[in-house]
């Protein structure tokens, strides 16, 4: 097993299938970029070759497909099936859910195990403010289809102070009513936010205070190794999570490895330089050496920001 000085290895792979999206969330990109017709992406065969090589060295436990918006990848169902055939125990997807209603059951049948749907608001007005799109109803339809198809579903809600903290309780109520686990994300200094002195984070403590005000005493769950989220139980037996990059950094036992949509490998979200695997393979460079270099990219304690957008490197 390839490990760094902190004992960290790579067991989870995140693949950003496309660096394009049909949304333009205000915290992800600074302007309303429209989806262009010309999308460049790697073909399924290329992804499978890369993941097969990584899996044989790392014995991956989980692959998460993300983006950009991964449901726009034209061969998603085939890719999921082929990844499952490689023997990877868990295949997951992170999506904005807007076109999921048409795909959920096919993806489940292809072998997808679980899905995280990003949902930042429970009113169409607030949804539009966050995403710059009016796809609220389609997104809810996508979530319903995912639940109905038997996929394990989680909701991820990114909070921006002054914009959607009033959605915390509605998101909890909606998720719990559907038997879904909700999670809140503290804002991170990615992309255009990197150079701001302060960013409008709504902190873990503030989230907890708000939930406690509403539902009474909260009990923390024991954190699972390499988990990005911490979880709490309410008095009436519901649970929720917080991914708190600022308040409760999770770099010290991170096991994540990332591939961007061109097949460049990153050992850390904060690194803006990847290892371009298709090119390095042509040059005959050994994957084990690349993985050792990628491990050196990891931060010791906390993520400090990156000029890459989440849309490019994959959240
Ligand atoms: N388009 C898909 C989606 O939105 O779920 C997948 C990619 S998106 C980059 C993955 C996650 O990253 C989303 O939940 C999004 O809210 C989150 N995200 C994007 N920019 C962020 C930022 N600056 N800070 C924290 N989370 C961010
Ligand atoms: Fe698209 Fe996801 Fe970024 Fe929103 S967060 S713009 S849905 S990639």
Describe the structure.
GO terms for molecular function: 4 iron, 4 sulfur cluster binding; cyclic pyranopterin monophosphate synthase activity; GTP 3',8'-cyclase activity; GTP binding; metal ion binding. Residues 5-221 form the Radical SAM core domain. InterPro entries: Aldolase_TIM, Elp3/MiaA/NifB-like_rSAM, MoaA-like, MoaA_twitch, MoCo_biosynth_MoaA/MoaC, rSAM, rSAM_sf. The protein has 10 helices and 12 strands. It has a single domain, classed as Alpha-Beta Barrel (TIM Barrel). The model has no long low-confidence stretch (mean pLDDT 92). The chain is 30% helix and 17% strand. It has a 12-stranded mixed beta sheet. It is globular, with a radius of gyration of 19 Å.
């Amino acid at each position: 097993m390839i490990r760094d000085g902190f004992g960290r290895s790579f067991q989870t792979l995140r693949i950003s299938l496309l660096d394009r999206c049909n949304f333009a969330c205000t915290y992800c990109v600074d302007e309303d970029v429209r989806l262009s017709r010309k999308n460049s992406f790697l073909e399924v065969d290329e992804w499978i070759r890369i993941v097969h090589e990584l899996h044989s060295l790392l014995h991956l436990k989980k692959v998460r497909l993300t983006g950009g918006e991964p449901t726009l990848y034209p061969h998603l169902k085939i890719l999921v099936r082929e990844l499952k055939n490689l023997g990877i125990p868990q295949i997951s997807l992170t999506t904005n859910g807007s076109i999921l209603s048409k795909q959920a059951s096919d993806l489940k049948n292809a072998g997808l195990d679980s899905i995280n749907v990003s949902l930042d608001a429970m009113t169409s007005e607030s949804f539009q403010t966050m995403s710059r799109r009016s796809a609220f109803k389609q997104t809810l339809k996508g979530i319903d289809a995912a639940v109905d198809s038997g996929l394990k579903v989680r909701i991820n809600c990114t909070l921006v102070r002054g914009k959607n903290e009033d959605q915390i309780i509605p998101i909890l109520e909606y998720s719990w009513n559907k038997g879904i686990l909700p999670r809140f994300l503290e804002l991170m200094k990615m992309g255009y936010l990197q150079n701001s002195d302060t960013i409008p984070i709504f902190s873990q403590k503030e989230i907890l205070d708000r939930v406690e005000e509403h539902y009474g005493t909260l009990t923390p769950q024991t954190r699972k190794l390499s988990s990005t989220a911490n979880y709490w139980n309410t008095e009436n037996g519901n649970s929720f999570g917080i991914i708190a990059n600022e308040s409760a950094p999770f770099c010290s036992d991170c096991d994540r490895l990332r591939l961007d949509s061109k097949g460049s490998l990153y050992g850390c979200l904060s690194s803006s330089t990847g290892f371009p695997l298709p090119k390095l393979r042509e040059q005959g460079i050994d994957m084990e050496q690349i993985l050792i270099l990628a491990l050196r990219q990891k931060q010791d304690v906390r993520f400090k920001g990156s000029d890459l957008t989440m849309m490019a490197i994959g959240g």
